[in-house]
Amino acid sequence: MSKQDYMNTSVQEPPLDYSFRSIHVIQDLLSEEPRTGLRPLRHSKSGKTLTQSLRLNNNVLNELRDFNHVISQLLEYPEHLAWIDLSFNDLTSIDPVLTTLFNLSVLYLHGNSIHRLGEVNKLAILPRLRSLTLHGNPIEEEKGYRQYVLCTLPRITTFDFSGITKADRTTAEVWKRMNIKPKKVWIKQNAL
């Protein structure tokens, strides 16, 4: 199958599903059998899975060390990974490895242990991210949680399974003007 054929069909492929497997570390994916769904997974000639979706929800992951290495052994085109469900794990931060997945459009991180609202800043680099979940994390209790996320990630269209309205954007912009100080630009007097 050519890369172009893959791109046309893989979005419709079922996810590679390792949910509810008590996985502690990403390397365990290599020895664990994925769950089977109603539709069978398709594989390339090399035996790797043809999909752009990965379910790792409801496990006990607390980090994503070696994620890219492991995923490259499982997926034929790991660079096209577009949908990841990491909900209901023990993640305390947004791992920088997620920021290397430039085709990522859906990311579920709800039900983890992310404490710092600033972790969301890491995701701003993802050009295709459109849907994100973070509810059920300690950051949800932070004042201005929703507004902060909407200001930081202006391209998302769905947040915590709710569509983002024009009113949400307006509220977020007002909140930003009232709560986030603009960065000062220092100009050397000699440069003038």
Task: Briefly characterize the structure.
The protein contains 4 helices and 7 strands, in the order αββαβββαββα.
Main attributes of the structure:
single chain; 192 residues; alpha/beta; 7 strands
Structural shape = elongated
N→C terminal distance: 60 Å
Outline the biggest β-sheet: 7 strands, mixed
Q: Using the CA coordinates, give the radius of gyration.
A: 19 Å
Percentage beta strand: 5-15%
What is the average per-residue confidence, as pLDDT, rounded to a whole number?
Answer: 92
Order of helices and strands: HEEHEEEHEEH
- Output the number of helix runs: 4
Number of strands: 7
Strand order of the largest sheet: 1-2-3-4-5-6-7
Q: Helix share of residues?
A: 10-25%
Low-pLDDT stretches:
none
By secondary-structure content and strand pairing, the structural class works out as alpha/beta
